[in-house]
């Protein structure tokens, strides 16, 4: 077998080690290590792909929708989502779970998640200007095709029934025998408690996680400014200036909302 060796090595006495050979060896080792690290990094990277699937099962009457989306420059206290049809009317009887997580300017989580519901979203500059005013308060016990309200979060049989206050929704949960103070989230009607513990910050963002069970109808999901914003949950520009009157504060709020 030794006679078949085509890569015979020279005798040790005839081998000469040079500085050039040392440099070449070091460069080869560095190149091998660099290629190894590059390939390892490429192997560990997440591959993001955008796909659109066409539903071929037309016999199903309902559609399940799951989404997670982050808005890095819009606070949760003013961000809402709604499902409306082609006539800009609210789609009714939608079983849904919506959770909003406050994000700091660096993307870190702030406080507890807020469980929200589908809400009326501002669709014009006039709606934005009225957002947060006293005239924008909701006075209804049941949602309609043109008005949303805070949900009772499945404590009622009808998904479109309203629980306007924190006490209302907690009372309904206690009536059902459910925990009215969950550990992993807080109701949107009780959001003041969360903001008291973790006050609003500048340049807050918001991550929305939602699951919807909806009838197959021509409709679209809308994300935008809630028409019923609570100014106390916002850190508005110049709000620290105590000499501003009510009208001036309203103008500052409207200008701030329109810039988003």
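Q: What amino acid sequence fits the structure above?
A:
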């Amino acid at each position: 077998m030794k006679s078949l060796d085509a890569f015979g090595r020279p005798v040790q006495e005839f081998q000469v080690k040079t500085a050039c050979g040392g440099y070449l060896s070091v460069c080869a080792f560095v190149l091998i290590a660099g290629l190894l690290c590059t390939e390892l990094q490429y192997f560990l990277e997440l591959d993001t792909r955008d796909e659109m699937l066409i539903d071929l099962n037309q016999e199903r009457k309902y559609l399940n929708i799951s989404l997670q989306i982050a808005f890095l420059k819009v606070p949760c206290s003013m961000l809402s989502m709604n499902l409306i049809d082609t006539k800009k009317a609210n789609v009714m009887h939608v079983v849904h779970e919506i959770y909003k997580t406050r994000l700091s300017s660096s993307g870190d989580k702030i406080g507890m998640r807020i469980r929200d519901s589908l809400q009326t979203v501002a669709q014009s500059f006039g709606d934005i200007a009225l957002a947060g005013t006293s005239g924008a308060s909701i006075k209804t016990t049941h949602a309609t095709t043109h008005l949303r309200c805070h949900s009772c979060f499945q404590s009622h049989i009808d998904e479109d029934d309203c629980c306007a206050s924190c006490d209302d929704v907690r009372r309904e949960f206690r009536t059902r025998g459910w925990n009215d103070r969950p550990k992993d989230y807080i109701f949107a009607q009780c959001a003041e408690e969360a903001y008291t513990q973790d006050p609003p910050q500048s340049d807050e963002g918001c991550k929305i996680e939602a699951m919807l069970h909806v009838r197959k109808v021509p409709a679209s999901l809308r994300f935008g400014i809630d028409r019923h914003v609570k100014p106390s949950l916002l850190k508005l520009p110049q709000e620290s200036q105590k000499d501003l009157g009510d009208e001036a504060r309203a103008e500052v709020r409207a200008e701030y909302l329109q810039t988003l």
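Q: And what stands out in the fold?
A: DSSP finds five helices and seven strands in the chain.
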